[in-house]
Write a structure and sequence with these properties.
mainly alpha; about 0% strand
Length: about 130
């Protein structure tokens, strides 16, 4: 049986994560009106939601670029939180639970990448010790 190299798995995760966060970032930069409802769910006014959307967009684009170019574990872990929070906010704002379930990949894929990076780092450290 052939073993898949961890670098291939890493890129299989990094590229779609880049696309997801970059796409969300670009939509937030356009202040997608429907998303303001999610921000209102956590207590922001409509006006402040509109004002903060570009910041969220820039943050998502930066996360996307970092994950694609050099996936720091801390940024990947942050993307787990972002993906989970944005999926969870949907049913909290009145959408059905399926809107959370269908977005499981938004936090599950970065979580898988985080664990893969952790394993690679441990393997690298054990190789350098020997």
């Amino acid at each position: 049986m052939r073993i898949i190299h961890t670098n291939a798995i890493e890129y299989i995760l990094r590229v779609p994560l880049f696309l997801t966060f970059f796409g969300h970032g670009k939509l937030a930069l356009k202040s997608k009106q429907h998303w303001v409802v999610y921000l209102q769910t956590v207590g922001l006014s409509y006006e402040n939601g509109i004002k903060i959307m570009p910041f969220i967009g820039v943050l998502d684009v930066l996360v996307a670029i970092i994950i694609l170019l050099k996936p720091y574990k801390s940024v990947v872990l942050w993307s787990v939180f972002l993906g989970f929070a944005t999926a969870l906010i949907r049913p909290l704002s009145g959408e059905d639970v399926w809107s959370f379930i269908e977005r499981g990949v938004n936090w599950g894929a970065p979580l898988a990448l985080y664990f893969l990076l952790t394993i690679k780092l441990k393997n690298k450290l054990s190789i350098t010790k020997n």
